[in-house]
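discrete fold record:
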Amino acid sequence: MATLGGARSLHLEDKIGNLEVGKEADFVVLDLHATQLMRFRMEQATKLEEKLFLLMSLGDDRTVSETYIYGEKAYDVNFKDYKKLVS
């Protein structure tokens, strides 16, 4: 993960480091309720650490909702022909 601190140390803070408009960003959007088990466990979780642990232990390909490359949507779970998104 490229953070603003890392970007500054590389003198690239004008290009990367956060999600400002115009910057290069690759990221994924995760569905915290992708499965029934995840939904149930997330409802019980009260701390961020618990939710992150649940993502690490229960998350799989169904958890990925969207993927962005250079800020452009490359994948959307609801868009069945996602190859058209990247063409």
